[in-house]
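Quick one: structure for this chain?
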Amino acid sequence: MLLDPKAGVLVQGITGREASRMVEDSLAYGSNIVAGVTPGKGGQRVHGIPVYDTVAAAVEEHRATISVISVPPPAVLDAALESFDAGMLLCLIMTERVPQLDTSKLLVAARRAGCTVIGPNSLGLIRPGIAKLGTVGGRVDNGKVAVLSRSGGMTTEIASYLTSRGIGQSIAIGVGGDAIVGSNFTELIELLEADPATDAVVIYGEPGGAAEEQLAARLKQKPSRLRIVAFLSGGFVDDLEGVRFGHAGVIVEGGRGSVRGKVKTLREAGVFVAETFEDLLQGLMLVHSSLVH
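Got it. Here's what it folds into:
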């Protein structure tokens, strides 16, 4: 499911401080990072990983199919297009506040190239005990519950909370906090429906955007085999229209994107919406007790 432990990973912007720390952490976890790319710095090594000037040169030497992008926002579009041209199948964009026009352009190119994009503004993804990319972490354990979150920090918090209650995860993904992201809840859940290791999904939503409403519309048309439990925060933003908090996507405009509206729509689609973290357990237990170790 998205993160094949045998797939080679290259990191664009590997010589940057954040990327270097991410590489060290991911290598320690066992992730198969094989190369890095920073124009003008080819020939260097970062934590033993060889650095190349271009993605093409890195792919020529190493069989990478996954790219992690950690470059300044204005450079993300070019970095992504370069990775698509080199045949990447999965692209994780950690950079936040990428210009929306650039994100739109790179997503069109990604569809043409057949590349799945996670982010921008994603903390990463982790398959417990198998591999991780980005800086996502916390207490994670193998299990059957996927965690999908617009907030990177809450990806970690929810996974840690579930683990502490004996509920392991099949995968945890920071979907991304920018206003436009590559893979939304609906698209990821459609992938997870084909994953035999996943029986349930916990999604964490915020004000702004229409990802939760899009998921609800899809579930009304075609119910999922997965048990879906949602937790949404930031309801206070509903009464502060036009004010942006935290992530670029956390903004209610024209009455759209309110937490009240999302909760109502999700419940109408049969999604269990938790009021507290403790309620997440109740929602998951409605599936079956085998989710608990």
